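Lecture 7, part B: from sequences to assemblies.

Below are the input chains for today's worked example.
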Amino acid sequence: MKVISLTEYKLMLPMLELVIFALGILLIDLIIPRDWKWLNAVGAFVGLFFAAVCVWQIQATLPGGAVGFSGALLVDHFAVFFWYLFLAAAGITVLMSERYLDLEDEHSGEYYALLLLSVVGMMCMAAGIDVVLIFIGLELMAISTYVLVGFLRRERRSNEAAIKYFLLGAFSSGIFAYGLSIFYGLAGSTNLQEIHRSILAQNPRHPVIVIALLTTMTGLFFKIAAVPFHQWAPDAYEGAPTSISGFMSVAVKAAAWAMLLRILIFALFPLRSVYVPIVVFVAIATMTLANFAALSQTNTKRLLAYSSIAHVGYMLLAFVAMGTSEPGSPAFSDGFKGILIYLLVYTFMNLGAFAVITSLRQRQVIGDELEDMAGLYHRAPVEAVLMLLFLLSLAGIPPAAGFLGKYYIFLSLVESRHYGLAALGVIYSLLGLYYYLKIANAMLIRESKETKPLFVSIGMRCAVGVTALATIVIGIYPEPFIQGVSRSLPTWAKPTAPTLRQ
Amino acid sequence: MVPISTLHYLIVAAALFVLGVVGVLTRRNLVVILMSIELILNAVNLNLVAFSRMWGNLHGQVFSIFITADAAAEAAAGLGILIAFFRNKETVNVDEIDLLKW
Amino acid sequence: MPDNYFARYLPLLMHFGIATVLASIIVTLSYLVGQHKPNIAKMSPYECGVQPIGDTRGRFSVKFYLVAMLFILFDVEAVFLYPWAVILRELKMFGFWEMMVYIAIVLVGLFYVWKKGVLDWGLIAGKRGDI
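Predicted structure of the full complex, as structure tokens:
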């Protein structure tokens, strides 16, 4: 009987540590009095910080990649990149949440515990190369987020958003699991490497394989909110607590992308002749629908939801470039880098934008309508200027970081000779500029009824500051980030024995 | 008399899966939709167990135990959300969930 | 013993058939032969019991749903104990401690539920209130 070694436990130390913190917060919350609820936020932040330290230690001793737990967990640079991303997003979300929850009168340890548990799920999704681990991670993340979306129990919009998100999410998970079960049947193993090997030997157009691929992809597209499976996203983002909308739009989406890349690139790459045409269609539909729907929105959260769907469309373009070129070619690696950098940059700029919207929530104001943005420049000049930065970055204007992601995506498209798709992407980016500037217009030019300065808590100032700093730094000095990303390019070689340099 | 092979199980599972999908798409009662989702997960379980027997290894059965646990967790979370919604709105009909729209 | 899979269950089928026929004969005979003199007391749902009050489709307290949900959760969590119990001898102490960790996590859940007052049944639970 093979016993799991200590080095393997070290690989999952960040996750174990987060689980312990989550359970601890849940229990401590039962005994602390109402005025001390901010301790929960501190606990969650400390937990995330320790997890980041653990990840850093793993990264420092990491060779090419280490597998553990009977080949279920693969910690390579790809996984470590996403782990940092999730931890950063969750940390910023905690900073945003404290005062917001205070205003909503929903202080609970459960909020932070669920946040940490969903991060654990995401880490499983990014590092799992066994279908079972990926699916369990997905569900841990999804169930935590369902509850977080419906966290404002007394507000009907939040209830409704949670119901819609839950029903569509559970439905898509079921379809996804059905696809995975057929792949298990084809390969006789739940390991993605085994599945890859058995798919190589088979005809990619065999009907059973096509059914398995289609159901799996349906699940994946639901999770990244690509058209035609995007309907849940605007509703869930609008109804959820604003801090959670921000968290979902970056971390949950990044986790879904990590899962998508692991499954479609790492395991099912031999089937690309079947899935690339579908992805092309989905990418075009996603960009078109999301950009046009965003034009007419009057609710800022909903507008950013459609903008996040549009960004998924751009990333799918890079995916097309990868799928149509050979591994190792410049188009493939630039497409891969494009997706990862885009996710990194998007995490900071979108969380920043959501942080500013969250800070608009005051005692009597919900603050998620475009009207509430009016005159922000006079009420909180620093926030307004940083919001402008986030919006320009989202639109892809240099030198903000958003340009970098778009640059790599369009570069990979040109390298793989998809000139038409590249042109379409550029046109839609320009269209995107219109609705981002609509927010900027309201913020800078329009007069507001409200004239007294906006109160912004210290945590919120930190959140906005950190995201703005990251947006500028990545935009101006991208070298270390690009190098970090290029190390995580996928390899199909079997990872070496589960050893870490001690 | 034909011996029962893996294919038979797969056909039953596929039928269950289709029933579940159709149920989710056509029924208007939230609880019935929840039950249809459980039907899909049971189809997955049947698939996994049949394949597990076919290959003679246990991966599929392990996966199916996890899916069972997951289905229970999902049902509990879903019913919790449903009760919170019902307290505010007094309905479980999906046509009346109409506050959020574009 | 017939070797056909279904043929072996033929006696069972015959048993069902005989039982159905016999039961329907007895019910029909007593219906045809017996006398029928209905009155209000005889037609009430519980002939010698209390008068029925209200509709059967009343609302249940939300407590029932909560307890049912908790039952499902803890019930399914116990499923993991079965495969573990089968190979515990092979896993030795390693498997034992792994399962202790799992049970500890489940116990945290139970403790949380308990402290939240879901398990209190009755008026005391109403005072805590915020489930």
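Note for the exam: The beta strands of chain A are 65-68, 73-76. Keep this in mind when comparing with the next example.
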